[in-house]
Amino acid sequence: MMCTPQQRSVGCRAAAVSVALGLLIGLVSCGRSGSADGSSRLAAYVGKTMGDAGAPIAVEAILPVNNGCQDALGVYLAQITAQNPTVFRLRILDMKSPEGRALMAAKGIKCAAVLVQGTTQFDLGAEAGKILLEGPMDPLDLYRVLCFQLKTTAASALVLPEPPDDCSAPRAEERRKAGF
Q: What's the pTM value of the predicted model, to 2 decimals?
């Protein structure tokens, strides 16, 4: 909304602020809500550690639990950990909780993230390239990182299921087209 010099009134400014706020809320919520009753599908997993303590692949997911934005990603991680507890150890934290905020601050993370073996940054070589598991994450990027870790860290021939198509973040190709 543009305000001409003649229209620069409190009402015009308030309307512009309302439009901007609406866009910001839409971006922050990722266009998704939690389950039909307004709760998050991640609520059952938040703050709990899944998998064996000695599992070779450690995963910490710091996700927005209140709006459903990354629920599918967190549920995918919980499912593969439940199916493979001797290979994966998972902890899901609400990014707005004191523990989630503390871990984000310690790692210099500003948005939702998945840490695998303590990092969000991966170089998977020429085929998959560099991957950052922060912000709006491509579920296939997470899948590629976990498969890479299976080969290099766990020396396992385990075949993971691909993440569901309804995972909450836009694919990397869509983000690149949008200029992100």
A: 0.72
